[in-house]
Structure prediction request, 402 residues.
Amino acid sequence: MMRITLLLHFGLLLSFCQAQTGGDEAAEEEHVELFTTPTAKMGAATSDFGYNLFRALASRDASTNVFLSPLSVSAALTQLSMGTSESAERQLHRALRYHTLQDPQLHNTLKDLLASVRTAGKGLSAAARIYLAKRLRLKQDFFSLVEQQYGVRPKQLMGGARDMKDINDWVSQETGGKVQRLLAKPLPRNSGVNTVSAAYFKGKWATRFSQSGALENFQVDGGMPVRVPMMQQDNYPVKMGADSDLSCTIAQIQMQDDVSMFIFLPDDVSANTTLLEESLTAEFVQDLSMTLLPAQVSLTLPVLSFSYSTDVMPLLGELGLSDWLNNQELEKISPQPARLGSINHKVVMETVPEGNQYASTASPPSHLAYRVDRPFLFLIRDETSGALLFIGRVVNPKDLRI
Ligand SMILES: *[C@@H]1O[C@H](CO)[C@@H](O)[C@H](O)[C@H]1NC(C)=O
Prediction:
């Protein structure tokens, strides 16, 4: 009976998804209504930047695991934008999607958003800072401007072997010791301006998993299954839906303090996820969250525990910043021509089976299974603000480690 109801629901969802694909103007209008408060608009803007960044990174190689905590990259680039000419700032803000906001209090709104997603219960710690080369003559106003606004003072480097350790120590300290060795090698000698950003996420489920750690098969594309630890729970309350256009089933799993994880599980192990990646926007996910329907499922998830680092500098061209790269105008940072050299980003995430509620044992186990045992995409979203906290593509969990 349960199953039939769900299938009916899926039918409804299907027509919903199809309705969504018509008419861009309609979508544009809806945007205005979906995000009303400054915080919600900022949440949407940072998420859209995050999806763009994720697409740029994910499309470099479709066969790799990819992870980002884009909000901390937004924070780093926003700090940088405080040091540029007005026209360069406009270009950076466009890439960061701030041009949609029309928010004169932009920096305060971002500061409030960052503070709200970093409250202890949500499980996110994040850090972002600008580092400047020793050789640059620097304008002191820039240091105080950024520090006053974001509580993080840009730092001038000493120009020696200690710099790498200094940066890594700061990141480690800001993330409770969880993000170690952000830089694996020293910054390039000639780089003038560098940003670092990092995030650690260890969210707690609303509903706990009773079984965890058993090794089970995870199908990888074009290879033998790999054995990875999984978490399992019957009658797990999720919100669910199927998207026939994207050929995937979506589950939203509630975490504590109004955070949730969305999983996009393609129907097929060898599915091409390009279309799915292309469709991710703040608006799409917001619509989705209002459309998914409650269900109880037998839920099986890989136990994820990993670190991932990347320099997103080579992706800026794809974010519409080609012109800016040639003309950065960091004139409020230094009277000398200074250039951005790197945007190092490192994330660490852990999942554990704990949660503060138990799944229902009153009813017999649901026949509906949601088994995440093949490549998938996931995102972690702060439901209060709509901000994207974390996004990832898991192609082969066997390759993941901290
Ligand atoms: C995946 O699909 C996109 C278009 O949706 C196509 O451009 C791309 O080449 C495909 N990738 C692979 C590996 O087949």
User: Anything to note?
Assistant: The chain has a mean pLDDT of 91. The chain has eleven helices and 16 strands. The first strand starts at residue 66 and ends at 68. The chain has two domains: 2-37+204-305+351-399, 60-202+308-349.
